[in-house]
Structures are given as C-alpha cells and as structure tokens.
C-alpha cells in the first residue's frame, strides 16, 4: 500500500486510534510504508512503546493541542507539565489551568544541568514557583530535574506517587523540553508491557494521545508536544537548532558597556544599550553562539553587510527563511533586577541597579520580555 493509499483509506492505529499518515515522522500517526504489511497496523510511536519500552516525540499545531488539552478537565488526572529552564517563559503552556480544570499539576523543570553548578537551587525553585503563579498556574509541587544527567527523576517519580492516587497521569509539554525522556522513565518504572499494547484501543483513548497501561489498571497518557512559534527553536533550521540550544553548562559572558554599544548574538539577534551609565550585562546563551560587540551607530550597516558571514550562523540562505527582524525597547528602572529574556535564544542579565534603556532585535514573533533575574 502506498503513502497516498494510507491517506485515502484513512487507516487508524490499532494502539492509540490516531489516523495514520506516511508523510511526516514528527506528526501523530506516522507509519513507514513497509510497516503497513504488519498485523496489527500501528503507528511508529506505538511500535516504539510496544517493542522498545520507549516513546518518541510527536507534535501538533497549537489549536489541535488545546483541543486535546480541553478533554483533560473531564478526566480524573494528574498533569505533569514539563518545561525547559533555559526557555522557561517560552515553554510554559499558557492558560493550562483553563483547560485541565481542578486536576492537580506537577511542574517538572528540565535542563537544570545548563545552569552553573554553584547555583542556589532553593532560590531557583522559589523563582520558578513565583513565575508559575504569576502566569496563572496552580502547582502542587515543583521538581527540578535534568534529563541529560538523569537527575531529579527519582524525586519526580516520588511526587507522582504522592499526588496521583487513582488518577491517570497526563504528560504535557512544548517541543524540545525533554518530554519523551520523562515518558520513557515512567514507562520503565510503572508500565507492564508484557501485555500486547495493541490488542485493542484502550477505553477512552483520544486521537493523537497514546495511553500506556499501568500495572494497577491506570494509564500514562502521552500527549503530543505543542508547537509555539514564539520560540526561536521553532523557527530555525535543524542545523541551527543544534547551535542555539545549549548542550552543556552555560558560560556567562560579562560585558561592560557604554551607552551606544551593541552586542550581536551571531546573526540571530542583537542587544542595544541605548541609554544609561556605564554598566555590566551578562549574556546567557549557547556556547556555539558567537557574541560580537560594536557601536550602535554601526549596527544596522554591520548586519546588512556581514549577516551570514562575520555574523553567522545562520547562513544567508537560512537567514532569508526567517521573518524580518523587529525591535523591542525596554526602560529598566533604577533598582530593578531583571533579565532581558529572548525565547529560545537565552537571556541578558542586567547586573547594575542604576537603570537603563535597552532594545532587542530578533525575528518578528519571537517572545521578548523583562522578567525577574533567574540567577
């Protein structure tokens, strides 16, 4: 059967019930053409769970994800919301509480390995709790963890046991936050996969969600990752994604700037110090992003002449695929201790309390904001 026939016949996965498709492995229902000869017919995600005790990430558009979320309010659920500490404001699901009703939420904050080892973890946990509250989330507990270092997951599993009761566990999160790693750990700890995953669709299975049976008759529900276009990580090419997303502990870069100076983040964006006394700013970005300081009066010309070359990556070809840059200006009051946050690209900490006027230039649509300093 051809890929076109998969679409035409509207086959559905025997495991999770999702409509099968052969075009995009990152979307729900993907099945390689050769797998159509197997019985029963199951999507690649169910196949990986069944045969390897392992879930893989799939994504859906925001409107579809919110439709799926809305069904949780009618369930008896414990929601595990996974967020990325490097991109906290960019990866939190906006308005989550509206969709899940009164069901309890555990906030699993991944990628703690990116922060300096000397970080004050109590302070960071308190910061997360306050930011989550300000964003309208009602959190039962915050668990700091690192999928890469496999740390914090025992605490998360303990929290799941404490708060679950007889509820099913729904795992939700944006793309690239480490959701699959957590799902895989939950499967290994709690799921009895000696039984066939695909004997029948599980009662209440919703399209695009995978129900993974637990020993006690409950289930882990793996939801697709939500795509937020306001995150830089959703706009760049696969090649550049590996550059902007850090894979090891951040090495903060401190710059003493006079007003009228600019810092370029390779060719991904720029930070302008427009007005204020000489002061220091600390950049927290992937080590593969090259920082370039210049005069503000030369910044436009420098970008026009050297984007994709001196200011690279991205290459000129990849840069042309991104939206036009837009400018965000902020006035920072005296005594205000803030980060200038750029979703998916990192942040700049304003170290002094003497006040400043700054601006950030990034592709249109990227979330840029002031927030209380994380570190």
From TrEMBL:
Domain annotation CP-type G: ranges: 62-229
GO terms for MF: GTP binding
CDD domains tied to this protein: YqeH
Pfam family of the protein (one): YqeH-like_C
SUPFAM superfamilies, per the entry: P-loop containing nucleoside triphosphate hydrolases
Gene3D superfamilies: P-loop containing nucleotide triphosphate hydrolases (3.40.50.300)
Domain of life according to the entry: Bacteria
Protein name: Ribosome biogenesis GTPase YqeH
Organism expressing this protein natively: Paenibacillus lutimineralis
